[in-house]
Amino acid sequence: MAEFNPIIIAFVCNWCTYTAADLAGTSRIGYPENVRLIRVMCTGMVDPQYIIKAFLEGADMVLVSGCHPGDCHYINGNYKARRRIKLLHAILPTIGIERDRLKLTWIGASDGIQFARTMQELVVQAKGMGPGSGRPEIMT
Amino acid sequence: MGIQRSLNIENEDILTGIQGFLTAILASQDIDAMLVPKRTSAGHSIMPVLISHPRELNGVDPISPQFPLNAARQVSKLTKKPSGKKIAVLLRPCEIRALIELVKLKQGDLSSLLLISIDCPGAYSNKEWASQCATQDMPDAAEFIEHRLSGRDLPIAKACDACEWPVAALADIQIGFFGMDYRKQLLVLFQTAKGEMLADEMALESVQVPEHRSRQLNEYISNRRSAKAQMFENVRKKTNSLTNLEVYFEACVNCYNCRVACPVCYCRECVFNTDVFDHDSYQYLVWARRNGSIKLPCDTLFFHLTRLVHMSLSCVGCGQCTNACPNDIPVSDLFRMVGEDTQAAFDYEAGFDPDQALPLSEFKENEFLDVAGV
Amino acid sequence: MEKRHKNALVVGAGISGIRTALDLAQQGNTVELIDRHPAMGGLLAQLDYQFPTNHCGMCRLLPLTRRDEGSQYCLRKGMFHENIHIRLSCELKNLEGEAGNYTARLRQKPTWVDPDRCVGCGLCEAVCPSEIADCFNEGLSDRKAIHLPVPHAIPNAYVIDLASCTRCGECEKICPADAIQLSQSRRRDFQILVVDDELSIRDSLKEWLDEEDFSVDMAASGGEALDMLGKKPYALMLTDIKMPEMEGTELLELAKTSYPDLVVVMMTAYATVETAVQAMKMGALDYLVKPFDPQTLIPMVVRIFQDTEAAKDLELQVDTVVISTGTTFYDPADPRNLFGYGIYPNVLTHIELERMLSHTGPSQGQLVRLDNQQQVRKIAWLQCIGSRDTQVHADYCSGICCMIALKEAILVKKMTQNSTDTAIFYMDMRTFGKSFQAYYDDAKKDGVRFVRCRIHSLAQDRETRDLVIQYVSKSGEHLTETFDMVVLSTGQRPGHQMKELSDICGVDLNPYGFIQPQPFFPAATGNPGVFVGGSATGLKDVAESVIHASAAGLNASGVIWSHHRQAPLTAQGQEAGPVMDETVRDVSREPVNIFTVICSCGHRLEQEVDPGHIMSGLRDDPEMVGQLVIDRLCTAEGWENMVSALEKVDANRFLIAACHPYVFARKIKTLARKMNLHPSLFHAVDTARLFWSVDSPAKEDGSTSGSRVLQELFQGATVLKHTGTDPIMPIPVTRRALVVGGGIAGMTAALSIADQGVEVDLVERDKSLGGNCLWLTRTLEGDAIGPLLNDTISRIGQHPGINVHTQSSIKDITGQVPSFFTVIETDEKQLVNRSHGAVILATGGSEARTDSYGYGTSDRIMTQKEVAAKWGGDGANPADLGTVVMILCVGSRMQPRNYCSRVCCPTALKQAQDLRQSNPDLDIYIIYRDMMTHGFSEAYFTRARRDNIMFISYEPEHPPEVETDQNRVLVRVNEPTLGVPLEIETDLLVLATGVTPQLPDELSATMGVEKDGNGFFLEADAKWRPVDSLKQGIYACGLVHSPRSVTDTIATAQAAAQRALSILSNETQYSGQIAAQIRHSLCSRCERCIPACPYVARWRDPEDDHIHVNDMMCQGCGACAVVCPNGAAILEGFTGKRMLGVIDAAFQGTTVKEVFLEAEK
């Protein structure tokens, strides 16, 4: 029986989390291939529309990850991102996308190991939750 | 506290009484024009009309159960750029609340406005109004209020039936029937400094707000709340998964009328009408292949979910989206419900305080700490 | 030898060297940035968390203007800039010439792995048998002889530490890129001559060296040796000293005369070591004491081989040199080793603790005891280890250890969820910098304990290995406390080989071996073309390092300017502008044709995936017109192969898939230029992450990885499909500066800018220039301020480029960088309109007022300024004084001024010293909280105590009390050590009231700058942009920035001037490729984007009723685009359409239905 292989779309900021992913790579620390990285300049530019799109296309989980609070290259983009995720946490559960399917994390540039661990943990959680309801047969 | 007066209408009907009152306001030196809901010449519809001559106030009708559009958008047009003129606007509570949101979005300006509102008994849906109009005589204003207060079964729009805000919070002048012997006398509250300045010119009798008013209002609201709870329960069941949501919107033809009707959808052009959604031909084939098939036009759910993100925080629950839907999708039921959730998440109340910042326009360093984390 | 020309050589690529280099480069100068380490970043490469955010944010150091000329990624990974050439593992070996025309000789050490070939695959590391302590982790973990110098750098080529390399050759065999060149042949070329009269010694030496693959010849006597030297070139001669025919020293002398480049090592018996030392003076490099074994000989020969033969020397012509070599730290395992460092496993230095707390550290961020790996529950910091200690020749304060300890304690508390007990054992908490006091208060709030004491000893419990601290408390009690871990806050020591470097550069050192700057000019050395930045003059925190680095940059750019006098500077250095000229092919009307190049990464691609699957996947998209696989694009060879292939291809967009796209940014620009295409028509995507970091489940057909590669490629293709190719328009710069405030800060800034050919308006509110320098007399070090002031004022007066407006003020400033519009109200109340490209705020500060401690009730109670007025000048006679009491921190470091004013403690010492000098019988009492004599001013504190000036400390909860009547002033204070109340009847009571800033609200409002909680200028970023305002083009210096001495003020003034010049030195500026734009026809004018912009770059213009973006101020974060619901505000490069396309591409190759059904199975 084929194992359920969740798709996780991760919007990562250019300065911190993308760098951490890169560091995980150069440090040979594996992270699961379920995770698909999409680089953005800042978490503060992640439009909720992108997250909705990812769910509608069939993502089982979406991650937005950037610099630690106080660390944002663009000063405060991560605080703005946090409010947007808060908004989506209020909207998505109503339409069957559980809160836990949308994550926000702060992963700094030197947190390569943390990045890999977080990704592994997310895959475990996504597997536990099973396929998201964003996988209807007709996509709109 | 403001100034409390009564408008005596013992010898006339409510609408005539209100018309007289509005005439007095329009006569005030301060007011250059007045935007009021007025019956069209054929009498089949009630539309916002900008009036500069008192004789044109004939036919003003703010109470009849028709609410063809949310006039906040029209007020926005009148005030977006300073005209140097003062305009009195007679709006339903939800129109005022939509206007407040538009003001926060720099789409209007309160400083040149005198806001007048009347306790709102709700309205029929546009379709219902049209069919009722065609088949029978409509109840007059007093009868309609009476039916509403007595809980009589009327074909009220769902949004209105579930509306907890029949009284405007922010009007400069509020005309009230709750708690009043409204066939004889209406309450007139001059609630703000702007309103108070006009109170003396109006030559009305002083009056105490009857205790009965809040009791009757609470009872009315409580009925609306149960209706709302019932509505939410129904919606929740119908939209609790993307698959169900798809069924909910199955009749949607991507006409975007809902967003055109929405008073707080202030974009000049919806993003779904821009080149962002002008996909490459090849892309449709990719999607079709990936999913086995793709319904066209596509992006339907995407549109509605995006709109939820864009405006649910400002949703005032006026129900015009449902009113505008050619295929009878209860858009408003869902938006109202989600709006309540999103507004609660930020401790935000759309349309009540012009100084309360839009939730996505501000942030604090130490807030919502539980949002982040694995 | 290579010969090159650069404007500036910056020695040391730590944070200060980077700042200096970037500042100079932004001006248009060319810079050679070198570092002796194989990676850049200096100390900060090791520090993940820095005060005051307790995070990093180093990337904020990157240029805001002409961003695309430099890297746009995490700065700790490394950087590039069009105008900076970085050379690592490189040292400055010689410097000749004069300011404006130096010849520098650089020596680049080999790393034995060719960085142009190394693909960083790490196969070598796996096979390397040699494990040694990892110096990046301060020896707390192990690494191989072949290793990455820092874990996060990009490009990250491996290096070999030859000292620990066994030369087994395994790495060379396995390297897929042929990057490792341990190759024997190069050693074979290294000719060694062994001269000894004893055959057995000759034979064994030859045997050992042969074994190491060196070429060895032997001579039995001096004569024979000279013969052989004449026949072929030798690199190294090992010679015995005692030889019958000709002494080794004579041979040395003769050989060196004929062959000056020959390296000679003397071999000597123990008895003749002195002769050997003598020989070194004659030119021998080193000596070996007989008998020696291969373990002694071989590393020495290898080192010589590495240093001489294998190292590459090159000469560089430069106008100026900046030394930013930083400091090293005291080694607590010195002969006294009082704290068992290196013996007790749980005793660490603060840098070691930083590594412990790092996720890339030895315990991956877990704070565990090193003896048993158990969680640390109690941890202590011991301050002033190797600082403020005359016994270790360190009569100075290291300046930042208090803040490091505070930060580490806060971090430990946070990382262990407050479960760890943290205690700092200290003498004085030196929280003298801007915002330090608030940070200290926060630490107290977080529960960090502070123990003011003297440490008696540190011992380890034999059984538990717990650490027992014995100390003497403030009140003289002997106490002990036990900890799991003890951190030694080790002090600063001069940078590596500072003596040698100072000799090379002709700069002076202070008695402790740090570079001694010139009085008042912290970046100036004795050599007029050589400057110093950062910590090389003494340890500094990040903000001060950055300030001093920019100040050094200013001095350097001044030299460059005066030797070229070209306006604008751009003409002299700029290698290439960011704008493509009209020869660039306009592809906007062509159909999209994308050609894809995939790097096979040492044929890893074929092992992991089916290239055919990838190719057919790509070909499915009608816009993907061609594909090519090339091996090892990251190597010079691979890249060249690709370039020649691409030139034959008919396409208008190019997608490159390889490892670490960061690396390609620069190469792509060159390639684009060559192909006449806009650089954004090229896009590199990362495949390294896919091959190496993806933790793939078992695959049967490799298709999974294939779809990952396809996803990545389609993401890249989407980027290319929606890429903008509009040219970036130049923004003309108003090349004129406004300086507000005519104190020493404003004057210095004005002169600095005007000296580089930019006109300046200097606006001063008072009648005359000078500010606080008008009443200051001398510094603590004894340098007179009068001459400095007079010289500065007269230079200003004579400068044709400076327009002084006294008794004037700023009425209004509108516009933005690089064109502000200023209205100046002059002394005749006339309004003058001027345009400026940049603004410097230098409105200063003044001595704070007080009404505490009886001030105002007696004329015997004075402030420090009043004392200076009365006794500061020469010839003042305080003979009528018998007793003087000084109270420090009056109203400072507590409400209402909860910050340290930094100048009061040194002023108190100076005034005490001066008064005592005039009146040796004077009794002086200084009542203080923490003596803030940071850095080298500590020596004056020591001297004052030695001179019997009495120091009595007090706690803010129990301040001294003052009683006055007509003729006397009585001070009551608790003497903490004796525990008794003292009553001092004094003739003079001096109150140190501190500094308050002068920044009127109207001024800050019209300039658009913000104030901090204490009314000082609020920096854009406390650490990384310390003199910049968040609103670009506005800078601050002097007391309005923060309390500081005259010298430190000049540092900020020069820094601010340099930052302003980075804009003003250029005729034009450019935005970045990724920048905000507005589609006016869609815009509803809701203005949500305006406050969303963190850089204040947007505004609504009432004239055209449009929202506008200042292209220079916009940094491309996209915060505006996301608040705009319909895409009227867009981020070019990350438009909504592109992003949605990229998301689609991320699902490439997955079939939703199938996945769904599979899961149900």
Structure description:
The complex is a heterotrimer of chains A (140), B (374) and C (1161). Chain A is α/β, with parallel strands linked by helices. Chain A contains four helices and four strands, in the order βαβαβαβα. Chain A has helices at residues 17-26, 48-57, 77-91, 112-129; strands spanning 8-13, 35-40, 61-66, 102-106. Chain B is α/β, with parallel strands linked by helices and 374 residues long. Chain B folds into two domains: 3-228, no CATH class; 241-372, no CATH class. Chain C has 32 helices and 53 strands. In chain C, strands 1, 2, 3, 4, 5, 15 and 25 form a seven-stranded mixed sheet that branches. Chain C has a seven-stranded mixed sheet with strand order 17-23-18-19-20-21-22. In chain C, α6 (222-231) packs parallel to α7 and α11 (401-415) packs parallel to α12 (436-445). Chain C starts with a strand and ends with a helix. The chains are: A alpha/beta (140), B alpha/beta (374), C alpha/beta (1161). The interface between A and C is large, with 66 and 73 residues.
Tags for this model:
heterotrimer, A: alpha/beta, Rossmann fold, four-stranded parallel β-sheet, globular, B: 374 residues, alpha/beta, 40% helix, 11% strand
Provide the CATH architecture of chain A. Answer: 3-Layer(aba) Sandwich
Unreliable spans of chain C are 567-580, 693-703, 1153-1161
Uncertain runs of chain A are 136-140
* CATH-defined topology of chain A: Rossmann fold
